[in-house]
Write a structure and sequence with these properties.
The complex is a heterodimer of chains A (287) and B (340). Chain A is mainly α and 287 residues long. Chain A is built from 11 helices and 2 strands. In chain A, a hairpin with a 2-residue loop joins strand 1 and strand 2. In chain A, helix 2 runs antiparallel to helix 3, helix 2 runs parallel beside helix 4 and helix 2 crosses helix 8. Classes of the chains: A mainly alpha (287), B mainly alpha (340). Chains A and B meet through helix 4, helix 9 and helix 11 of A and helix 5, helix 6, helix 12 and helix 14 of B.
């Protein structure tokens, strides 16, 4: 039971982090290397706001405000990146990729110089735990899981039930076709970057409440997200869900059986095997 | 083969390169005499990184930008470190070539899956593979010393009157290796094989349709580049005397990638020029070391957005302008982007 709970917690984290990356790739056809730093900024939004607001409003409120503020600020940052970098390097996905790699170091250094290289943690907002069928479930983790589900539901609603979301999906499926239908590419790119970056920030705020917040937390999460989106099939949202679940199961089981320190290697080997036999990933379409 | 035969049977540019190297070598040999001991170590590290980036440039000729290069170099470094700190230490020269071989073997093993990916997918998959390898350095504590790494790696015993225990002596070892690798790789670059590799990178389907083994021509540079990385890693473990997994982390990898972008990779000298620029930046801001990654990152963004082609294009344009000025001719040279 404890293992099952851990699988759910870990998978939801992998998913919340990787889904923004997969969404941006689906539409922009490029990888935003600074995604990890956007996630890190979301974590710092929680830390900063906890310091400012904790005396005035209840902690739950701070948590929600941090999520909204983080998403808004980082989403805007994503739109700025779209306007300044992506727009100017249009049709050169590899250059964009390299430029965001540079950007990720720029953001890391800025955070190190303004806030400091030390890891920070915020006190538990929802302390305590509940026992269920012999498993210990920290309430904080359950709240994080709840918000992750809410975030995924919101994304699903946006993509499936709104006109803008449909336009984003149309662009991901067929760019020329979408353009012929009068969809503005600039607007879709801005929307996607906003949503993708905001997802990273929300994921960072959520995880910041249970993990250590530090300038390099993004890089650590990013390479596993790469493995997840490669195995799931780059750009495929459903593939990302499947792969996040798969690695949630594998990593939790390995930790439970005491070989947790080898998860990084095993995950990479699984990725290499998937690439060997299914180069476009589990659910990815062949380009 | 007589010298006359050598000159007529090899590409003219390679002969020029040999002459240029022969002229530059005494200057490079004399260089450390004019430097303080701090700058001598900077020079040695630069030379070792230059070897590493020559291998990296070889990989990029097949169209893929690997992110596992530094982790692969770690295989060479750990081979040397482990075998030279045994109770009965191995000879450095054996570990040097063994380490390079092991790095090449690792590249060959991961070549099959990762070479199925192209462009940034290749970057992502090598990134994950390299990071897993680095995790291996941390986790297999019994062999690699875990996070603390391995210390007290001895330098090789000297010969020909050169003492490798001194920084200057080691510089000569690194310089010799760098010059040999430089000439070999330059010759390789001009050879039919080297040009075929670039043709495969430029258009894989077309190359395949005229009967070129595209798979082999993409695997070969990847493996050879990794062998050179292992070689450089082994030398650097020996120079520093101590290694730990942090030495093979993403910051050095980023330095190599940034050097390749700032300098450009379409010429042989481009990445080395880029490395020179980044090293100069690093040393100029030595007292503000924490800002260095930001400056590197900003340089990469600036080159990509404002100055496509990088430093090598500036040199080529300058050279062409000079030529046009001397010969009174017009010349045009269009810049290449990374994606073309």
């Amino acid at each position: 039971m404890q293992i099952l709970a851990n699988i759910v917690f870990l998978s939801s984290f992998y998913l919340s982090f990787a889904v923004g990356l997969a969404l941006v790739f689906g539409v922009m056809r490029t990888i935003n290397f600074a995604h990890g730093e956007f996630y890190m900024l979301g974590g710092y939004a929680l830390w900063l706001l906890t310091g400012v607001l904790s005396n005035n409003i209840p902690d739950g409120g701070t948590f929600i405000i941090a999520m909204l503020v983080g998403a808004g600020v980082v989403g805007t940052l994503g739109m700025l990146v779209q306007l300044s970098l992506f727009e100017r390097l249009k049709e050169q996905p590899f250059s964009i990729f390299m430029a965001t790699l540079g950007l990720s170091y720029v953001l890391q250094v800025i955070v190190v110089k303004t806030i400091g290289p030390m890891g920070r943690s915020v006190p538990a907002i929802f302390p305590g735990f509940i026992m269920f069928e012999g498993a210990i479930l920290p309430i904080q983790r359950i709240v994080v899981l709840g918000f992750t589900v809410l975030m995924m539901a919101g994304l699903w609603y946006f993509l499936m039930r709104t006109d803008l979301g449909r336009a984003v999906r149309a662009t991901a499926q067929n760019k020329t076709g979408a353009m012929l239908q009068g969809i503005s590419m600039g607007r879709i790119a801005l929307t996607t970057m906003f949503v993708g970056s905001a997802l990273a920030a929300i994921s960072g705020t959520l995880m910041g409440s249970v993990l250590m917040i530090g300038p390099f937390m993004g890089g650590e999460a990013l390479w596993r997200a790469f493995i997840i989106i490669i195995v799931g099939g780059i750009g495929s949202l459903s593939g990302t869900v499947v792969a996040a679940l798969l690695f949630g199961v594998i990593d939790t089981l390995m930790t439970a059986f005491g070989v947790g320190k080898f998860t990084a290697m095993v995950d990479a080997i699984i990725m290499l095997l998937v690439l060997s036999f299914m180069p476009s990933g589990l659910l990815g379409a062949r380009e | 083969m007589t010298i006359a035969q050598f000159i007529t049977s090899t590409p003219r540019r390679f002969v020029y390169a040999c002459i240029g190297t022969a002229i530059a070598a005494p200057l490079l040999v004399a260089l450390p005499h004019a430097l303080s001991s701090y700058w001598q170590s900077v020079l040695v590290i630069f030379t070792l990184n230059a070897i590493m980036i020559m291998g990296y440039r070889l990989i990029t000729t097949m169209g893929g930008w690997s992110f596992s290069h530094v982790a692969t170099a770690g295989l060479g470094a750990y081979t040397t470190a482990i075998l030279m700190t045994l109770e009965v230490p191995w000879s450095f020269w054996i570990t040097l070539f063994l380490g390079a071989g092991i790095a090449g073997l690792f590249a060959l093993l991961i070549a099959y899956p990762v070479l199925r990916t192209r462009h940034y997918y290749f970057f992502l998959s090598t990134f994950a593979a390299g990071e897993a390898l680095r995790q291996g350095y941390i986790q297999f504590k019994g062999i690699t010393g875990g996070g603390f790494g391995i210390a007290f790696i001895p330098r090789p015993e000297g010969f020909l009157g050169i003492d490798f225990d001194t920084t200057m002596g080691f510089y000569y070892l690194a310089l010799t290796a760098a010059l040999i690798i430089w000439l070999l790789l330059y010759r390789f670059d001009l050879s039919r094989l080297g040009r075929t590799i670039k043709a495969v990178a430029a258009n894989e389907e077309l190359s395949e349709s005229i009967g070129i083994n595209t798979w082999g021509h993409r695997t070969l540079p990847f493996v050879l580049g990794s062998v050179i990385a292992g070689f450089a890693g082994s030398l650097s473990a020996n120079f520093n005397g101590t290694i730990n997994p942090m030495d093979f982390g993403s910051i050095l990898m980023f330095k190599l990638v940034a050097a390749a972008i700032v300098g450009g990779v379409s010429t042989f000298f481009g990445p080395i020029l880029g490395l020179l620029y980044l090293t100069a930046l690093e040393e100029a801001f030595r007292t503000w070391a924490e800002w260095v990654p930001l400056l590197w990152g900003a340089s990469v963004i600036a080159v990509l957005m404002l100055w496509s082609g990088g430093l090598e294009m500036a040199v080529i344009r300058g050279f062409k302008l000079l030529k046009a000025f001397l010969l009174n001719r017009n010349s045009n040279h269009s810049a290449k982007t990374l994606d073309s």
